[in-house]
Amino acid sequence: MTDVYLNNKFAGNIKNPEDFVERIINERRMGKLPITINCRHNKKSDEVRIESSGGRAVRPLIVVKNGKPLLSEKHIEQLKKNDLLWSDLVKQGMIEYLDASEEENALVAFSEDELEEESTHLEVNPLDILGLATSFVPFGHYNHGVRLSQGSKNQKQAIGFYMANFYIRIDMDVNLLHYPQYPIVKTLTHETLKYEKHPSGQNLIVAVMSYEGYNMEDAIVINKGSVDRGLARSTYYRPANVEERRYSGGLIDDVSIPDKDVNGFRSEEDYKFLEEDGIIYPEAKVGEGDVIIGKTSPPRFLNALEEFDLTSSSRRESSVALKHGERGIVDFVTLTENVEGNKLIQVRLRDQKIPEIGDKFTSRHGQKGVISIVVPEEDIPFSASGIKPDLIFSPHGIPSRMTMAHMIELLAGKTGCLAGRKVDGTIFSSEKEKNLRKELLDLGFSEDGCETMYNGITGEKYKARIFIGNMYYLKLKHMVSNKVHSRARGPIQLLTRQPTEGRANEGGLRLGEMEKDTFVAHGTSLVLKERFDSDKTIVPICEVCGLIAINDSRKETSFCPVCGENSEISNVEMSYAFKLMLDEMKSITIYPKLKLKGKY
């Protein structure tokens, strides 16, 4: 007898498992059972598993009988005329949904050419095996699998036209590309998802060549003329919110320009952009430290006497100001109420981002790189027909990464541009490379995509012919202006006395274990000593008991609270974090005795 499990719970025994499974599948195809039920006979463990639980991943497949699919050309014609719907195909048992377990016992053919007598199912479209972003990669079947998934991830970070009503929205941290374009080399998914309504890249002229060594590794060279004409220009939007909170005892926040007697009053210069109501005006150019919304709050802690006389307690300053390294133009100001009925002020800042050295770009094939130089247009190489590339890509990025689709897209983009049409690059069913080459030849260009190019600086002809074409390039949200960070001296943490963390807090740049190893390897011990003293402190230590002594700065003496004034005290240089650790050890009754030696 074979055990039967329904959703991993034992349901009973049966004699003939093969017939049982076949009957369930047939009844599902006839519509007598729900389409979400899947059944499988595991021969190794001799058990039948029936699944109907929610949350399973299922996918549609065309049912095949005797080596022929049930879906015929006649049905496809009816689908095109809308006489037949997808749901009808499912009801009639031509298409069924399989989960991972039932798929184990199925032989799925990739295309009609691969159908065999034993085949049980046929893919609706080979494109189904990919996710949405991955199916955007043109000629993806020429690429390495890893590059395909990297291309998919890179596209998710691209800046584009994310929403048509962006102007009246207040979103966190968004970018908007100024001149987005629809790709010349498209896929089926671009049409299905109406990509023209939310594009996220531009069609650039790309030359595959070296340029004075500037595009070594993954660097790219970009044409300044193209940048001046608006290539990859974008705007970065960021909001600031303030609400007038209500506190117990009838106290509330007050949005206004703070008075001079308020605790924590900044300088008058910081409040220069605020209008009478304490809110900034649109189109104001603001920088680091400037206040956007002025606000004062009641004191944090009230004692019993102050609660009766609130006039005597001064309010504290709690305005919203730009953090370290931030700047922008006030784009939009709105006054409204939140769910609790409190007054809510939202200010949106915008900052124009023009491509510069360090900005990140990528093609749709995972070939990402940063700008290493923005070359003046007159120094850019040009072709015999006077075409100048917008971007120069290093030829060394191709052999090791095996992204052949990157090269084919250049060829296809060039053909599409010259023929004035869009090229279909859908994975597994794209236009053939040889057809594109023939069309390019008919258009009067070399079929291999190469052209004679001239040095933009000297005017000499290059000895090698350069591979040049059109490609859909994406600008990624990782821009150097949002990441650039340095610090000399600045704020420190209260507890450890070490520098604060993070760019917004004007934090320090951490020199970690591996960075330390590089200094050790170079033998620069004094640099190492200097690097590791961000929290250097001098602590008096008792030589008798080895505990931290007390320094009396008024009497200019030190004494040990354990041994008294007779003990010998020495000043020892140490990290404040180490001193803190000693204090914490004492709190759990461990005696951290310091033995001093090497006194001169």
Written description of the protein model:
- Helices cover 18% and strands 26% of the residues.
- The chain has 600 residues and is of the alpha+beta class.
- The protein has five domains: 123 residues, no CATH class; 213 residues, Dna-directed Rna Polymerase Ii 140kd Polypeptide, Chain: B, Domain 6 (Beta Barrel); 117 residues, RNA polymerase II, Rpb2 subunit, wall domain (OB fold (Dihydrolipoamide Acetyltransferase, E2P)); 45 residues, RNA polymerase alpha subunit dimerisation domain (DCoH-like); 52 residues, Alpha-Beta Complex (DCoH-like), CATH 3.90.1800.10.
- The strands form ten sheets. Strands 12-26-13-24-23-30 form a six-stranded mixed β-barrel. Strands 5, 6, 7, 8 and 9 form a five-stranded mixed sheet that branches. A five-stranded antiparallel sheet has the order 10-14-22-21-16, with no helix packed on it.
- A hairpin with a 4-residue loop joins strand 3 and strand 4.
- Helix 8 packs parallel to helix 9.
- The chain is extended and about 100 Å long.
- The N and C termini lie far apart (90 Å).
- The relative contact order is 0.10.
